[in-house]
Amino acid sequence: MALVDTPPASADSFSRASFTGSASEYFGIWIVNVLLTILTLGIYSAWAKVRRKRYFYGNTVLLGRTFEYHAKGLQIFIGRVIVIVALIAINILSIIHPLFALATWLVIVIGLPWIIKRSLRFNARVTSYRNVRFDFVGSTGGAFVAVTLGGIVAFLSIGVLAPLASRWLWRYILNNLRYGDRSFSSEPRLGALYRIWLLPFLLFVLGGMIVGVIIAAALEMERGGREDIGGFAFFMVFLPYVVVLIYGLAVLVYRTGVRNVVLSAALLDGRHELLSDIPRLRYAWIAASNILVTVLTLGLMRPWAAVRMARFTNEHTGIRINGDPGEVMSQIEASGSAISAEYVDMEGFDFGF
Fold this sequence. Notes:
The chain is of the alpha+beta class. Helix content is 66%, strand content 11%. An eleven-stranded antiparallel β-sheet has the order 1-11-10-9-8-7-6-5-4-3-2.
C-alpha cells in the first residue's frame, strides 16, 4: 500500500529483462521437436515442451543471470495421459446415460480449480533463478473464486465485469507466488483496469456493429429475391474474418493492458518493484503479423515469430531492486536455497493448464 501515495518510479530506473536467443538457433530445436512429435504420434510432445521451455528460460536474462526450467518430459507426459483418460471416461459415461453427462460436468467444475492450482504450483516449482526455486501456495478454493467464478462473472456481464474478474485472477496468482522464502504481492487498482478495458470494449462494440451491418445486408439481399449469389456468399465468407480480426484485437489489447497494470503494481518481498510497459497496439501488431507470417510459410517461420515475441516482451519487463542488487540477491539466495532443495522431488505432474 506504500505505493499508493508515492509517485511511480521512472521506467529508466528499472533493470529490464532481455532475450539472447536467435531464430536460427531455435529453429534447430523446433524442427527436431516437430519431426519427433510426428514420428511418435504426439508422444514426444511432452519432451518437446521441456526442450522448448529450457531454451526460452535459459535465454531470458535479468540482472545478468538467466532462468532455468527443471521439469522432466515424463512428468508432463503422465499429466497429459491422466487428462486424456479422464476425458475418454467422461465421454463414455455421457453416452451411457444423459444423467452421467450432468454429473461429469459437475465433477469438472469442482475438479478444474484443483487442476489449476496443481499446474500453477508445478510450473512455479520447476522454475528457478540464481539457483532459487519459485513456489505457489494458492488453495483450490482460491482457484475456484479466481478462475471459475471470475469467468462466470465476466461472461454473464458480457465483459463489463471483466476487469474485476482479471483482478481476482491475478491477485490469486501473484499473491500466492513465492521466490524462495520471499513473497510477491499485487493490489492493482480497479480504476486502472477499467481504463485499459475501455479501448477493448469500444472495439467489441464496433465489431458487433460491423457484424450487425453485414448480417442485415445479407438478409436484405436474401429477402429481396436478388440473384446476386456471389455477393451473398461474399458477405458470409467475409463475416468470420471480421469477427476474428476485431475481437482478436480487442482480446490482445485487453490482456496486454491487464499485464501492464498488474505487474506494475506488483512487489517482491514488499519493496522490490516490478514493471511491465508493453505498448498495446504494437503488441497486437506483432502477435497478428506473427500468425500471418507463420501461416503463409506453412509454419516454417514459427521459430522466428516465437523469438521475436519473446524479445519484445522481455524488453518491456523489468524489476527495480531497492538496495544494492548484488547484496539483496545474495541474501535471497542464502535464505532460499534450502527451501528450493525441498522441491526437487515434490513437483508432481503438469496437467497442461
